[in-house]
Every structure is written in structure tokens, then in C-alpha cells.
Design goal:
23 helices, mainly alpha, globular
Length: about 550
């Protein structure tokens, strides 16, 4: 055994402490909701017409958003797969990564700039004589926004599945002279179909727990999801009973969604192939190239125009004046402190649990306790999926009410909630890198007698520096652009950049909101670029996945 008993014990202790901290933080929030609500909350869920209406709308918009994202992603993914040498293909794929890393509030502003009453497309439609342009507010706007953010995710996952199709399949299709419809039926659809349940479940979860988009584009009581209704119950109506009932309903809903997602089996392997380069001939025809080019152009416009709108509107604002305002630097400092603290905490907890999981795997014999502990630490990293941020904030709001004004603890709560939001991503980035690093260095370090501080300085930090900085930058970007927990506790004394943007929108100072959104977007983009700097990219015909 390369690990000594003392090293294994330290790793397991660190993992146990981290697991207990995460479980305690989430458990206390959930317990405070149950304790404060009691049976009245359950009865409210079952019989309150308002809550049932909110539940119906939450499920409806999530179902429609998921269906639209999947339906539109399939032809776009097929077009990208059929045209591996399309001019600018890699930049189209990279464009699809931007909405996934863009703060949701900024994306909403970009969509308003295109689809709003005074937006580009609505203005053009009014000029050609259409009296009723598209309304960005209400169900239509929510669906547009969810497709804007989730279509790229679905498309990239489907494209990866299509590019895993063995080269021999395309060679056989070419030899048989299969037409595009037959290619889709016998080759492409069987490759995409196993991926759809998992993709749909993920998108449905994201849409069912959507907060910022619905808060910005909801358009009133008729277009309100559970999380927005929780926020309204505490922020505007101050109805803790309704907020508790809605929070319990949200936990039940996310638990059912996660349970349904667990039923879907992973996609199977296509089997061994000869490893030939993929040469698709079904996209070589002039009609096919024209159709694919038109489809990709529409996708680029749909995704790119809101981003261009953000830049144009932001540059039109008085950025110098905004940078001179004390409230900007106050909010920027608060956002930076929160995002850095949340990111560092998420890395510390992740590394503690990863080391403990690795210590368990290194045992020759693992009992039921070891396996349960291993599984629990893996599940703890995704606990925020079961209890969303706005529900956590509500639970802690109720727990801290007996101690006075809960907003006094706002900064600490937002840091901890954002830490939990980043934890699933940080774990997925660091755990594979840590396992590979241990396999490469553990024997050598043990043979040389390098341990603890010396090992950390000479071996672990140089070997894990890149994934650690990647996790740090992405966790900071995720926290920096979050409005969820801040929305409940935001006040004149506690202002972050997203809250400042939202408050300027609410006071109809749209130019200031556009300028602040551009600044926030640039900061998040720089953090994202910093996180991916130095990572290998595929510049050949296969494209960038």
C-alpha cells in the first residue's frame, strides 16, 4: 500500500468533515422549512389554487422549453456533423459555448435588445406591416430565453454523439448510395436517440429551477415559476407560509426529476472499429451544402445577435460615468469578494472529498461503510440540484429570523450558497485530474520519501496547478454572475454587480444596466478564457467539442 495508515486516516477525516459541513448546511435549511411550515405547508400545497397554478406553469414552460431545445438542436447538430470542413465551423461551435458561460441576466438583456418592443427584430417586423410583434415578456420570452441557453448545450452533446459514429458506417452508407433521409433513419437517429433522455432530463431540470430568466422576462403572475414565487412571497408579500409551501414543493419536484433521470441508462458503446478518418459524402451535394449553410446561418444569428446587442448597447452607455460611481466599485468589490471566497471554499471542500474518495479506492478491501461513505461524498457535491439556491436561501432566512434581521448574514449565506452551486463543476474538473496525478506520482513520491508539505510544494501543486486554476476561474465566473441568492438578500448595504444591473433595469435606467451588463460580461468572459488557457483544442476538420 502506497498510503500509510496515518495518511489515509487524515484523508478520510477531511472528507468526513466536508461531507458533514455540506449536509449540515443543506439539512438545516430544509429542516427549518419543515419546522416552520408543519402540516399547514403541506395542506397549502394541496389546496392553494395559486400554488397549483404556479406548479402547472413551471412544468409547462419546462416541458415546452425542453422540447423546443431538443427539436431545434437535432438539425443544427446534423448540419455541423455533415459539414466537417465548413468555413468557420470551429467558431460556430465555440459560439455555442458562450451562452453556457454567460451570466443569465446578461443573456436576458441581450434577448430584450433583439426581441423587445424596441428591439431589432420587432422593429423590422413593424416596418413591414406586422402590428403585433413578438412579446419578449411572458411565456414566449421565457421559451426564447431557455432555447437560447439550452439549444447550444443539446447541440454540442448531440454533435459529440454523431462524431462517435464509426467511420465504417459512413463508408457503407456511401457504397449503398443511401439518401439523406435513410442516413438519418439508420445511422444518425440511432446515434442521437440514446442521448436524448439524458439531455432532455438535464434541460428540464435547468428550466424547472430557472429563476433569473423568469424573474426578468416572466411578465407577471400568469408567468411565474415556483422559485420566482418563493422570491415574491418573501420579498414583496412577506408571506412566509406560502414561501415555505413553495419551497417544499420545489424540493419534491426536483427530487422527482432527479429520480426520473436516474432511471435512464447511459448510452451504449458502438463497438470496435478500424479507426478510419470520418468521410461523409451525404453532405457533399450542392443542395445539402446550401441547406446546411442556411441552417447554420440561422443558428448563428439566433445565438449571435443577442451577444452583439449586449456589446452595442453596452458601448452606447456612458461607461466612464459608470466607472466613476462609488456604487459600482462597492458592488464590484462585493462581487469579487463573494466569488473568490465561494470558489476557494468549493475547491477546499472538493479536494477534501476527492482525497477521501481516493483513499477508499486505494483500500484492498472495501466494506459496506466504505462504499456508502464513497457514494455519500459523490452525492453531496450535487446536493444543490435537490435543494436549489433560492430554496436554500429561504430556509436560512426562516432559520435566522429569530435572531433578528436575516440580511445581516447575507454575505456569508451568499458565499456558502454559491460555493454549493460551484461544487458539482469543481468536483468534475478536479477528481479525474487528481486520480491521474496520483497514478503518475504516488510511487515515485513514496520511494523518495516525499510527504506532506514537501509533496504539496514539489509534486502536487505543479501537477494540479492547471486544473485547480481552471476550477477556480469557472467557479468565480459562476458565482460572479449569479442573481439567485442575492435577489433575496440584496439591499442598499449589500449590492453585487448582478443585483446592481437588475435594480437599474427595475428603475428603467436601461442605459446604465446595459453598460454594467457589458462590464460584468467581459469580466466573466475573461475568467472563462483564463480557465481554458493552455488546454488543447482541436483545430482540424473534426472540430472542437
Amino acid at each position: 500500500m502506497l498510503q500509510t495508515a496515518a495518511e489515509r486516516q487524515r484523508a478520510l477525516t477531511g472528507g468526513a468533515i466536508s461531507l458533514a459541513a455540506v449536509t449540515l448546511f443543506v439539512g438545516l435549511a430544509a429542516f427549518s422549512l419543515l419546522f416552520a411550515g408543519g402540516g399547514a405547508a403541506i395542506v397549502g400545497i394541496l389546496f392553494d389554487p395559486y400554488i397549483l397554478r404556479v406548479l402547472r406553469f413551471t412544468l409547462l414552460q419546462a416541458l415546452l422549453s425542453t422540447a423546443l431545445s431538443i427539436v431545434f438542436a437535432i438539425p443544427v447538430a446534423r448540419a455541423l456533423a455533415r459539414q466537417p470542413h465548413f468555413l468557420g465551423r470551429i467558431w460556430i461551435i465555440r459560439l455555442m459555448a458562450v451562452p453556457m458561460g454567460l451570466p443569465v441576466l446578461i443573456g436576458a438583456l441581450g434577448l430584450i435588445g433583439i426581441w423587445g418592443r424596441q428591439g431589432l427584430l420587432n422593429s423590422l417586423m413593424m416596418k413591414i406591416g406586422l402590428d403585433e410583434p413578438v412579446s419578449i415578456y411572458g411565456l414566449t420570452g421565457i421559451l426564447l430565453a431557455h432555447v437560447f441557453f439550452n439549444l447550444p448545450l443539446a447541440c454540442r452533446l448531440m454533435l459529440a454523439g454523431l462524431e462517435r459514429v464509426p467511420a465504417e458506417y459512413w463508408l457503407m452508407a456511401s457504397g449503398l448510395g443511401m439518401r439523406p433521409r435513410s442516413v438519418f433513419r439508420f445511422i444518425e437517429w440511432p446515434a442521437i436517440r440514446p442521448l436524448i433522455p439524458g439531455i432532455a432530463g438535464l434541460i428540464f431540470m435547468l428550466c424547472a429551477t430557472s429563476f433569473t430568466l423568469v424573474l426578468t422576462l416572466g411578465g407577471g403572475p400568469a408567468a411565474t415559476t415556483i422559485e420566482v414565487a418563493i422570491y415574491q412571497s418573501l420579498r414583496f408579500d412577506f408571506d412566509p407560509g406560502r414561501a415555505i409551501a413553495l419551497s417544499l414543493l420545489q424540493i419534491a419536484l426536483t427530487a422527482m426529476i432527479l429520480g426520473a433521470m436516474a432511471l435512464f441508462p447511459p448510452a451504449g458503446d458502438e463497438g470496435l472499429t478500424e479507426g478510419r478518418d470520418i468521410k461523409r459524402l451525404d453532405g457533399k451535394g450542392q443542395c445539402a451544402r446550401l441547406a446546411d449553410s442556411l441552417l447554420l446561418l440561422i443558428a448563428v444569428l439566433f445565438l449571435g445577435l443577442p451577444l452583439v446587442s449586449i456589446i452595442a448597447a453596452g458601448l452606447h452607455a456612458d461607461l466612464i460615468k459608470l466607472l466613476q460611481e462609488p456604487i459600482f466599485w462597492q458592488s464590484a468589490g462585493m462581487s469579487l469578494a463573494i466569488s473568490l471566497s465561494a470558489a476557494l471554499l468549493s475547491i477546499v471542500l472538493s479536494m477534501a472529498m476527492i482525497r477521501a474518495r481516493h483513499a477508499i479506492l486505494s483500500k484492498r478491501r472495501r466494506g459496506v461503510t466504505d462504499r456508502s461513505f464513497f457514494t455519500a461524498m459523490g452525492g453531496a457535491s450535487s446536493m444543490v440540484l435537490l435543494v436549489p439556491p433560492i430554496v436554500l436561501a429561504t430556509g436560512w432566512f426562516m432559520a435566522l429570523r429569530p435572531f433578528g434581521d436575516a440580511t445581516r448574514f447575507a454575505a456569508v449565506l451568499v458565499v456558502l450558497i454559491n460555493m454549493l452551486m460551484a461544487l458539482p463543476f469543481v468536483m468534475r474538473v478536479l477528481e479525474p485530474a487528481y486520480i491521474v496525478h496520483q497514478r503518475r506520482t504516488q510511487k515515485l513520491a513514496a520511494s523518495l520519501g516525499i510527504a506532506r508539505a514537501a509533496r504539496l510544494r514539489l509534486i502536487d501543486w505543479p501537477g494540479l496547478k492547471k486544473p485547480l486554476l481552471t476550477a477556480l476561474s469557472f467557479a468565480m465566473a459562476l458565482s460572479l454572475g449569479d442573481l439567485g441568492a442575492v435577489a433575496l438578500f440584496g439591499s442598499e448595504g449589500f449590492v453585487t454587480l448582478p443585483w446592481l444591473v437588475y435594480s437599474r433595469m427595475g428603475s428603467y435606467r436601461t442605459n446604465d444596466a446595459d453598460g454594467l451588463a457589458l462590464i460584468l460580461g467581459i469580466i466573466c468572459l475573461l475568467l472563462t478564457i483564463a480557465g481554458t488557457a493552455g488546454q488543447p483544442t482541436r483545430e482540424n476538420g473534426d472540430g472542437d467539442r
